[in-house]
Amino acid sequence: MTLWTSEDAARATGGRAIGTWTVTGVSIDTRTIEKGDLFVALTAARDAHDFVAQALEKGAGAALVSRIPEGLPDDAPLLLVDDVLPGLEALGRAARARTRAQVVAVTGSVGKTSTKEMLRTVLGAQGTVHAAEKSYNNHWGVPLTLARMPADVDFAVIEIGMNHPGEIAPLSRMARPHVAMITIVAPAHLAAFESLEGIAREKAAIFEGLEPGGIAVVNGDLEVSPLLVELAEARADQVITFGEAAGNHHRVEQVTICDAATVAQGRAWRTHVLYKVAVPGRHFAVNAMGVLAVVHALDLDRAMAITALGQWEAGAGRGLREVIILDPVETQLSLELIDDAYNANPASLGASLEVLAGAKPKDGMGRVDHGRRIAYLGDMKELGAQEHALHAALAELPAMEKIDIVHCVGPLMRDLWQALPEHKRGHWAETSAAMAERVRHDLDAGDVVLVKGSLSMALARVVDAIHKMGHAPATI
């Protein structure tokens, strides 16, 4: 299906089309580009104009450029603009203007990507959905997501993130949501903000892009919830709160965390609801209630939404649970991995530790007779002046009582390592690469293992090392 013609793309961006062409997608990466994509030559760590020829050789339908790279044939299909990023933004705004979709925007210090994926699943049960891939939520990720949006989808879910003040409002104005949701405001990016209130004000800037008659969906359990509601009321036609506290419009009343799922009961306004998500964690249950609030705001079928919620699972790096078989013959010799290595801040790490604390190791399986709960934790970044205290404070979390061993990665996590009682203190390493070398010796059949840290700590290396311990079952 054609996404952009050369004529439409030139009109949207004010650029000049060279040749007549059509494209079926939009890409910024030659490693994942597909035949028929428009290759966007952004300038970031490297100037992607250097890869235009490669993109076209791989089958790109055209390239969005601010200059014609040397060596291209005269008939190379291009869209020439003054500056590539503003050109991509213009393409995104034009895609938003032409779509019939009901648009939902999501932000939050914790849970925005998993909530976006819940919404993808839930809305997908009631129509066609376009949603951001991965965590494409920044100054290029949002316009890229919009530029990729077909005109005829029923719903769009746009994730919006930030690192510094002033980032969310322009992205929300570009997305123009009908519903805007805040999952949670927690200590994260404190290096760029003076206080939690500062973070809350930046998150609430998502309401600045609301369409007329738009609805705000806000976590009502937070210290800053009154401020969020106040700022939402200034922009939204209606504000719906969700959470566990009394007085929330959509309220979670009971959460049962099982080994492989979470079951919750509550009230969606005045209607009793019972629902499940196929991953353990109280925070997933609360955000799922927020998703039901979005369903209410969009006037969709709640029963269908609850059924779809039960089919949602966390993705890799965001709480995905896997069984790693350690012996190809004796397949019962296994451990369980909780891969939450994509990001970390105090709130999300506390939630993940709660999940680990509720997991059930298996005894009598390996060298160590007693199955253990083990955590590999990497530095939480961008926490400002409180970073050392916030890391050390993790030792006092109630969930830590049920965790047997904590291995720590990075200079900041050394504060936690030193604060732990000796019987829980595992290894400390400066880097994830150094820690990954020890994994095979530290783990055993029956263990449940959590891996979590900020993305820059590269704890995916520890995850990879655990995967390499695995074997496929033997076949006869």
TrEMBL record:
It comes from the Bacteria. Transmembrane segments: none annotated. The keyword rRNA-binding does not apply. It holds the Pfam family Mur_ligase_C. Residues 106-295 form the Mur ligase central domain. This is UDP-N-acetylmuramoyl-tripeptide--D-alanyl-D-alanine ligase. The keyword Nucleotide-binding applies. GO terms for cellular component: cytoplasm. The gene is murF. Pathway: Cell wall biogenesis; peptidoglycan biosynthesis. Involved in cell wall formation. Catalyzes the final step in the synthesis of UDP-N-acetylmuramoyl-pentapeptide, the precursor of murein.
